[in-house]
Design brief:
The protein has about 625 residues and is an all-beta fold. Helix content is about 5%, strand content about 30%.
Length: about 625
């Protein structure tokens, strides 16, 4: 039987082809019956390793095998994966420092600038679990990020001898609010005062609970009212029926029904609400005393044995039995004060008071309507008043009562008026009144004018160089008015000069008039507050120096004279009258603004000509 056998030892065959031929020949022998198995031959020598055959095609990807057990890692963090709904997917991984073989839990340090790996360990503080350090690049320790532009950071800075840690807005972020809500909050400043500040501070107790301010030891509640903060302490207020249901001794409130401040007094074991009296304990001039015990009287009222003694001096009493007070209060100067209706102005209300050791305060001053800012100035025996805009002819009435006796009072009327216009009172013609021959100055006096560094000037457009006050009708009755002019653009508003210096025997007020021909014009009103003398004189007053409202280096000055009021001498010796030689006024065309002294021997300044009597009444022009 023929068998197909392939040649095996062909020199061009590779080892793999040779093996394929051997397998083929073996299969042919088995397929054709073959012969009996011969004896097993000895193992031949290991042949040489054949060359690598061609790479076969990539087989199909097999199924994913099961996840193996996690191997070892050097990470100091242990991961805890949380699958809260058991769906085979982790919702979150929790990281925790590995404990290892340490006795305590690990400590974490972030941002240690002194640490260099394998060189220096840096900070090794062990008093906190988490430590964070900032540096010049990262100024903040922690940032809490809510949304874009809404971040809160913790940082620190030097504050004097202290280092201050604070939460603040992340740079450029705004409209953030920081709060804390818990059952109890405690702040303690061990060695320095506790400070809290804000655009406003509001303390509110929840429900019907109290706000308590406690001071340890002898500490007090100190309301600091410094030169910048003109504040006040406002008491809780309410009607009589709104008093606390369970009052405690020491409570203070304002009773709106009774219009009084009241306090809850212990009252020797019988607590009650009483007024916080502002004038209790005021002494009276005289008093009486009744000495003696009980009196046993007969049927007709005569005593049977004991008597009483009434001691003390006479008491001057009113019809209702109250003692007559020695308190006096009077107005010094005019009781009617005119102010411009549409421009806030400052005026003063001078007064004379007895006893001299008391002065009216805010509690003694009442006004018929709002619109005035009132400040008592007891050191100067006057009251400062700043007005506001008000309709013409709607006056304020300022009533001031004596602190010792509120039945003694005075009233000022502050009348809003329209500004004086230049044409309100025409100046009479110079020829209207014959003028006796009088030496006339060779040159017209130049109105005092000064130019400031900013180019502003102030002058007296009517040519006035001085003013005269006549008190012969009574102490402090002399008045005068001088027109001022200040340069400006007209856009500065109703400006008036400021007073640089003046004689202490006069009071000065400014009244704005009009802006015309490049000048702010108005009136300088001068009033005498001199008390007079038993030996009256014609006095030369200290110069009145005023400055431009916008430049205090631009100034102008006025000479002043005063004829004193004659106070009767204490003796019966008559005082001779001054000689009646009159000083006749001179007339200068365009002059005006006041009248000169009317009698001699009152001395006049040798360098100042007598004032003209034919002027236009001091109105701005």
């Amino acid at each position: 039987m023929a068998i197909n056998i392939q040649e095996i030892l062909h020199p061009s065959d590779s080892n793999s082809i040779k093996f394929e031929k051997i397998n083929y020949n073996f299969d042919q022998i088995l397929a054709n019956g073959g012969g009996p198995a011969g004896p097993k031959g000895t193992k031949g020598d290991q042949g040489l390793t054949g060359s690598t055959g061609q790479k076969g095609q990539k087989g199909e990807l097999g199924p994913i095998g099961e996840k193996g057990v996690s191997g070892e890692t050097n990470s100091p963090w242990y991961k805890i994966q949380i699958d809260s709904n058991n769906d085979g997917n982790n919702e979150v991984t929790v990281l925790k420092p590995k404990v290892g073989t340490d006795l305590n839990m690990p400590i974490i340090w972030l941002g240690d600038s002194t640490f260099e790996e394998n060189l220096t360990n840096g900070h090794i503080d062990t008093d906190a679990r988490l430590n964070i350090e900032k540096d010049l690049i990262f100024e903040n320790y922690i940032k809490l990020h809510h949304a874009t532009g809404k971040g809160l950071v913790m940082t620190s800075s030097s504050s004097g001898i202290f280092t201050k840690f604070l939460w603040q807005n992340s740079f450029g972020d705004d409209l953030l609010e920081y709060g804390s809500t818990t059952n109890k909050i405690t702040f303690v400043a061990n060695t320095e005062k506790f400070s809290a500040s804000g655009h406003g501070i509001a303390l509110r107790a929840l429900s019907n609970t109290n706000i308590t301010l406690n001071a340890a030891g002898s500490g007090i509640l100190d309301v600091d009212i410094d030169a910048e903060f003109k504040g006040y302490l406002r008491l809780p207020s309410g009607t009589t029926g709104q008093r606390p249901n369970v009052p405690q001794v020491g409570m203070i409130r304002f009773n709106t029904d009774l219009d009084i401040a009241e306090a809850y007094f212990a009252n020797s074991g019988s607590p009650e609400w009483k007024e916080l009296c502002t004038d209790c304990g005021s002494a009276i001039a005289d008093s009486i005393g009744i000495i003696g015990g009980d009196i046993d009287a007969n049927a007709d009222g005569t005593p049977t044995s004991e008597t009483i003694t009434i001691s003390g001096g006479d008491i001057d009493a009113n019809a209702d039995g109250t003692p007559v007070s020695s308190a006096t209060l009077s107005i010094t100067g005019a009781s009617l004060i005119n102010v411009i209706y549409n421009v806030p102005q400052t005026v003063y209300l001078p007064y004379s008071i007895f006893p001299t050791n008391v002065d009216p305060g805010s509690a003694n001053i009442t006004v018929n309507s709002a619109g005035l800012t009132i400040t008592p100035e007891p050191a100067s025996n006057r009251i400062k008043v700043v007005t506001s805009t008000r309709s013409v002819g709607s006056p304020w009435s300022v009533t001031v009562s004596h602190p010792d006796n509120n039945s003694v009072s005075v009233v000022w009327t502050i009348m809003p008026v329209s500004p004086v216009t230049p044409t309100a009172t025409p100046a009479p013609a110079p020829t209207a009144t014959p003028i006796p021959p009088t030496p006339v100055p060779s040159a017209t006096p130049i109105p005092p004018t000064s130019s400031g560094g900013a180019g502003y000037t102030i002058s007296f457009p009517n040519g006035d160089t001085g003013y005269a006050l006549d008190d012969t009708q009574g102490a402090g009755t002399g008045t005068a008015a001088v027109t001022f002019g200040m340069t400006g653009t007209g856009s500065e508003g109703s400006i008036v000069p400021t007073i640089v210096s003046k004689d202490n025997r006069i009071q000065v007020s400014m009244q704005y008039g009009i802006y015309i021909a490049g000048l702010h014009r108005g009136s300088i009103n001068i009033t005498s507050i001199d008390g007079g003398s038993t030996t009256p004189l014609g006095l030369i007053l200290a110069d009145l120096v005023v400055a431009h409202a916008l430049d205090n280096s631009a100034t102008a000055s006025l000479d002043g004279t005063l004829i004193q009021y004659q106070i009767p001498a204490p003796t019966a010796t008559p005082v001779p009258n001054p000689t009646a030689t009159p000083v006749l006024p001179t007339s200068t065309p365009g002059g005006g603004g006041g009248s000169g002294p009317t009698a001699t021997p009152f001395p006049q300044p040798s360098s100042t000509p007598a004032q003209s009597g034919g002027g236009g009444g001091g109105s701005p022009s």
